[in-house]
User: Fold this.
Amino acid sequence: MRSVLFRSLVATFVLAWSPLSFAQPAGAGAGAPPASAPAETLKPQTATTGKTDIAKGGFVTSTAPDDEDPSYVNDVSIGLGGLFSAGNARTIALTTLGRVRIRRDEHQLSAAATANFARAGKRGETVDTTVENYQGLLRYDYFLTNQISLFLQSTGRRDRFQGLDLRLNVDPGVAYYFINTKTHRLQVEGGYDLQHDVRRDASRAQVLPEDAEPGTPLPPPLDKTKTLHNARLFLGYENKLRKEVALIASVEYLQNFADVGTYRFIADIGLKSNVADQLALATTYTARYENKPLPTVADLDSIASVNLVYSFF
Assistant:
């Protein structure tokens, strides 16, 4: 009797656990793509159809899930952050941002704008502006394949404390995407950069070197405008694989053609955490380094901010 009961218990245990031992997660069977892999690597058998070599043909007939298909993207968000204090110290600081990325087949249009402004002062003293800059970006990509695009990008920056009424950059180039899905991207870009600066009058004055003789006259002011021709290299990463958290990071390097000793780089990193379906809290940090800035300007600027971000799509 005990032997029969023991065998029955063993058989019940095996039957109960055997499905768990051999079950696979949904979508983990043969032929199902990993969520983060580019569409072209998912179904190698389609290579013989000729539909993965040309952007439009491949994208229109894409079999990738909607949340992984890079050829149809609507990404629109706005953000706002601030700091306000009163009493012994009076402070007001505002930061805003807006981003748009729209893609249809081989055509992609991106735009972004941000503004940072701050005023501060002690009680009984004048409140002065301590931060004031405005930035914008407009870009068009034409995708030859899911991994390669030709692009034309233009950025503008007005920064009171960098001594710039306007810094205009025009950047044609080519981008290669190691990973390119709707929610996961890793890209490298290379190309040419035309930089045109319009300087603030107050920042054009030159200073005397420390070892100058007493009575040495000041050098003449710098030119109002200056144009540079640079090589541009960019590395960017975006991870939105989890709905609750998103990471965006990039590094850009500009090297002047005429003067090897003139260069600058820009680094950005942002972490966004959802607090609701379309509302998130985003922390961003930007560092801008220029090794030959205007005479009265520091070579490194950095901005850290916290924003509430609302995503429309």
User: Anything to note?
Assistant: The first strand starts at residue 72 and ends at 85. The two ends are 66 Å apart (CA to CA). The chain has one domain: 28-311. DSSP finds two helices and twelve strands in the chain.
